[in-house]
Amino acid sequence: MTNAKIVNTNALGQVVSRVQIDAVLGICGELKAIPAPLIPVLHAVQEKVGFVPREAVPLIARELNLSIAEVHGVVSFYHYFRQDPGGRHIVHLCRAEACQAVGAAEVEAHAKRTLGVDFHGTTRDGAIRLEPVYCLGNCALGPSIMIDHELHGRVSAQRFDELMQDTRTPAAGGKP
Amino acid sequence: MKTRIYVPRDAAARSVGADATAQAILAEGRRRGIDVEVIRNGSRGLLWLEPLVEVVTPAGRVAYGPVQPADVPGLFNQGFISGASHALAHGPTEEIPYLKSQERLTFARVGVTDPRSLEDYLGHGGYRGLKAALDMEPAAIVAAVTTSGLRGRGGAAFPAGIKWKTVLGVDSPQKYIVCNADEGDSGTFSDRMVMEGDPFLLIEGMTIAGIATGATSGYIYLRWEYPDAKAALNAAIATAYEKHYLGENILGTGKRFDLEVRSGAGAYICGEETSLLESLESKRGQVRFKPPLPAIQGLFGKPTVINNVITLASVPIILDKGAEYYQHFGMGRSRGTLPIQLAGNIKHGGLIEKAFGITLRELLYDYGGGSLTGRPIRAVQVGGPLGAYLPESQFDTCLDYEAFTAIKGMLGHGGIVVFDDTVDMAAQARYAMEFCAVESCGKCTPCRIGSTRGMEVIDRLIAGNNPAKQEKLLRDLCDTLTYGSLCALGGLTPYPVLSALNHFPEDFVTSVRARVPA
Ligand SMILES: Cc1cc2nc3c(=O)[nH]c(=O)nc-3n(C[C@H](O)[C@H](O)[C@H](O)COP(=O)(O)O)c2cc1C
Ligand code: SF4
Ligand code: FES
Fold it and tell me: Can you point out the beta strands (E) in B319-436?
């Protein structure tokens, strides 16, 4: 992506590259024949690009024969779809009852304080974006968090720090 | 001789280090020149013991847990590969009282078999239900499900057989089976455990549903939060196609059933069946008006059976062992077994499959061993975020749909979330309103706007700002939610709110709130 030609900068100052646009078009081409392809396309785009760029919305609408309003309506309805970049890693922190019962609120406060962000925010080094989630299905071993697609249980404040350290360390499989 | 060792691949086990434990066992075996094979099974559901390692010995499987990588050399030293005793040893797995006292019908294979192995599935009674169904008339399959007394395990407890009968009775060239794997309720993970630990079971249940109702196509709507379940299902589906348990000619009978997994995108409301169908159609997950029922006009406007994972996964044993066998378990109108999930502040959290009729108290203390913190249990929430908070005085309630309705609660998907005496019930009530506001689909005003008003009223109530007036406002607002909501998200949010207020009024009174530790 580094030497990709920059083709557009949107209202949020996001840089959308030719590579990203090609990725979106490729995904649409691949999936448009399946029944009700829009949500699968959005998942694939987010997986590949890291978020659903605003520029992708009209492209997807055109490719799938939908209106821009329809596509936008779907993207904005679902908590999982992100419309802005930011965060090489996504940390989903469970806020639901079973985790509350074992101290999730303290972990949440600790996470926000140590990362210096609120929910939906990204750390200044761009490494970590913090998102709330309502249950990860790990309710007997809370507090639970998910880092990218990896689930972690019994996350204390101290464990949270270790996990963030690992996430930022390439040797531990993280991207700095 | 090769030593076989089971280390769960279940997401909960992995969340506390099962992968590292599996690696450490393999490495230690190599280092000592011992031939070790590690099999990644589902979880037995004794979650406080995860990672629970089982060693296959001539006397059966022997359990050790929780096993961290650092424990592994010591376990080898003490001879755990022959089942020797150790501080982490629990003896033969099947003899552990927590497990031994259960009635595992739906979960019979979970934790026992390798979820990726069709041979293992077949070797443990798998696909016998489908084979029985293939020899039956569709109406007879539906009748068996009806006679079994199986009610939907997703929350509403509607008889599965009646739903299937409606779909069977509609003439349509295209019908669908949809599995609701959105499992959004906090405190629940039984769907996840089945999908990860015994994915062929769900595939078999859905295939039987297809053959029974004339549906040739199925979708599993799976929440994005379950990537491991997705991998397990996709692997099992691929194998099932390859071996002709799915596809255009199931086991040479000429019957067809196709199956696919679709991912949700983080919306609690998409667990509601009509919202789920909208989402499967790649639309905003807004609740549909009923009628038409999904059974008549469901996915893409076609007749659709929509059932929860556990409902569908309970069908194979009904066809295999007979409706009478299944319906013989249970009490009153709640027949069969319920996979109960014990969660939150509990010492021995996990999965307990029991016939309906067990009391909350037995679950909390005999199985659960009391709270994790060792403090008194003050409240439990049963049935997810829309379920009531119950005080100790209601712990003798039996797990039975009607018994819970009678105390203005609901059993829902069978999740029990435990809180100790440090819980602030006013904060829990406020959270219930907040959750409703965050997850509302936006169709009804009371749910969309009223929930935010509810948070504000609770804030003023606990601030002691004209409390009598605020309480009246809150109760009126709950009435409006109850009667003015299209679906149970708005309609049942008053359950947790009012149960907190009615059973724990002291937490809402400024002068008394000092008792609640910060
Ligand atoms: C707000 C809301 C959320 C729901 N979430 C789920 C869910 O996550 N999983 C589920 O199986 N049923 C859920 N349901 C119940 C479904 O609407 C429906 O009753 C169920 O899928 C039918 O399957 P069953 O009869 O096998 O239970 C929910 C209902 C409501 C109102
Ligand atoms: S009650 Fe709430 S979630 Fe249910 S249909 Fe109305 S607005 Fe949507
Ligand atoms: S409540 Fe946090 S994982 Fe279920």
Answer: 330-331, 334-335, 337-344, 350-355, 377-382, 389-391, 415-420
Q: Closest Cα of chain B to A74: distance in Å?
A: 5
Question: Do B299 and B166 lie in a common domain?
Answer: yes
CATH number of the domain enclosing B372 = 3.10.20.600
Domain final residue, candidates B301, B327, B353: B327
DSSP state of A150: E
Q: Give the domain CATH number at B497.
A: 1.20.1440.230
- Closest listed ligand to the CA of B225: 3
Could you list the pLDDT tens digit for every one of the 176 residues in chain A?
Answer: 334 444 455 444 455 688 888 999 999 999 999 999 999 999 999 999 999 999 999 999 999 999 999 999 999 999 999 999 878 999 999 999 999 999 999 999 999 999 999 999 999 999 999 999 999 999 999 999 999 999 999 999 999 999 999 999 866 555 55
Q: Is the CB of B338 under 6 A from ligand 2?
A: no
Cβ count near A126 (within 10 Å): 13
3-state secondary structure of B411: coil
Nearest neighbour of A141 by CB, restricted to B16, B224, B300: B16
Q: Is the ipTM of this complex over 0.95?
A: yes
Work out whether strand B89-92 and strand B60-64 pair parallel, antiparallel, or are unpaired. Answer: antiparallel
What pTM does this model have?
0.96
Asked if residue B240 and residue B197 are part of one domain, the reply reads yes
* Residues B69 and B130 grouped into a single domain: no
Q: What residues of B are in contact with residue A81 (Cβ under 8 Å)?
A: 265-266
Q: Which residue of A has its CA nearest to B188?
A: A137
